[in-house]
Each structure stands twice: as structure tokens, then as C-alpha cells.
Amino acid sequence: MTEERLQKVIAEAGLASRREAERMILAGRVRVDGKVVKQLGTKVSSFEQVVVDGQPVERQAKHTYLFYKPRGVVSTVKDEKGRKTVADYFQDLPYRLYPVGRLDYDTSGLLLMTNDGELANLLMHPKNEVNKVYVAKIKGQLTPSEIKALESGVRINKGKFKTKPARVKILKTDKKKDAQIVQVTIHEGHYHQVKEMFLAVHHLVDRLSREKYSFLTLDGLISGQYRELTHKEIDKLKQVD
């Protein structure tokens, strides 16, 4: 069962800032299931009723979806160029969802959509090193030294960053077309990272898809479809902390 700090619940309901919510708690203005709570840091579950100054707090339900993002879709809520966005696929839902991180316009695959800001921040924080598995179709064929370079870390974005060690696996080689299908596992999220990594070893990416995020996969979905994560899956994602 997921629990949240009382002051966070009050703040997310729009009643006050977290600092103000703490003052409300200390002043005895908050009740949980009918009992006055004055202890800061108290955690409450979604089944407990929170009341401030006699008024029940309406708590927004948290939702997180696994979305199979198609190519040609922007990973934002709005796009000034009028292109289709990931939010367009969720218009019928009674709450707004935001992407956790991003996938490039021409990259397809697994993208999480959520209204749980705490979960999103947890997953995107660099220290948590959430594995992301991509499959790329590249021009040419990787040499052993190029694979070693990718696995050790390469300079990308005009030398600004050196990537952390990655895992590289050749899935298929087409010698006639001089192309390869390559699986790459990383846990960073630099702009155009996978494309830039291959560019650093002199290979262009023709197609790119994210196939896995942490333990989550696209199994059972086709491009443009989504499903809501279970409580068990969300709890497992939060264990990266």
C-alpha cells in the first residue's frame, strides 16, 4: 500500500504550500480519520480521510500508463508546430498525464505517462540509473573496437558529455545491405543519446525504438496503444529509490 506524507497530500490538493501545510498540522487544524494529527512526517494511505478546518481534502488519484509511442509523435503535452503529441492519445481520460522523460519525434517505443510527479522525478533522477533498452537499425557494421568504445563510454553532443558504460548486443547483421540491428542498454537520458553514441563511432541510425524501461516491456501492445500500470508494477518501479 502506497503512503504519502500528510503535508504533501494537503499541498497537492491545492489547499496550501507544503510549508503552510506543515503549519496547519502543527496548529491542530488537520484530522486523519477523525483524529487530530500534529506530528510532521505522518504518512497517510489513500484509504484514510484527511480533513482540514472541517473540510474533507479531495485527493487526486494517481495514474501511470505504459504507452507504445508511434514514430512521428512529439513527447510533449503541446507542440507549437502543431504536430501530434503523446497527450493527444489520452484526451478521453478525465485527468492530465505527462510523459516521464521523452522519446525523439522519429523514435518509437515504450514511454510512461503519469500524473504522479513524485514517481516521475524518482525515475528520471540520474542517481537511480533506471535501465532503458533500445533497438537500433544502423548503417554499416560495428567492429569489435567500436563495440568496446560504446560499452566503455563515448563523447557525445560535440564532446560535452561522456556516456556511462552501456551494454551492446548485435541482434542481426545484413551483409548484403551493410546494416545491423543492435540492442543497446543505457540508464542515462541525454538529448538524442543513442543516435549520438552511434554517430561517435561513425554509424548513422536508420530506425530506433525503446523496447524496455526498467522491467517493463511492450508485450501485448501495438503502436499507439497503452495500458495502465498495476499497483504492483508501480510499487516495483518505486523500489529504484
UniProtKB/TrEMBL annotation:
Q: Identify the InterPro entries for this entry.
A: PsdUridine_s_RsuA/RluB/E/F_cat, PsdUridine_synth_cat_dom_sf, PsdUridine_synth_RsuA/RluA, PsdUridine_synth_RsuA/RluB/E/F, PsdUridine_synth_RsuA/RluB_CS, RsuA_PseudoU_synthase, S4_RNA-bd, S4_RNA-bd_sf
Q: Name one GO cellular component term.
A: cytosol
Question: What are the RNA-binding S4 domain coordinates in residue numbering?
Answer: 4-63
Cite the EC number: 5.4.99.-
Offer an example of a GO molecular function term for this protein. Answer: rRNA pseudouridine synthase activity
Coiled coil segments of this chain: none
Q: Name one GO biological process term.
A: enzyme-directed rRNA pseudouridine synthesis
Superkingdom of the source? Bacteria
Instruction: Please name the Pfam families in this protein's record.
Output: PseudoU_synth_2, S4
**CDD domains with a match to the protein in the record:** PseudoU_synth_RsuA_like (cd02870), S4 (cd00165)
Q: What class of enzyme is it?
A: isomerase
Sorted alphabetically, the keyword list is:
Isomerase, RNA-binding
Q: Which family does it belong to?
A: Belongs to the pseudouridine synthase RsuA family.
Return the PANTHER family for the record. PSEUDOURIDINE SYNTHASE FAMILY PROTEIN-RELATED (PTHR47683), RNA-BINDING S4 DOMAIN-CONTAINING PROTEIN (PTHR47683:SF2)
Which protein are we looking at?
Answer: Pseudouridine synthase
The upper taxonomy is:
Bacteria, Bacillati, Bacillota, Bacilli, Lactobacillales
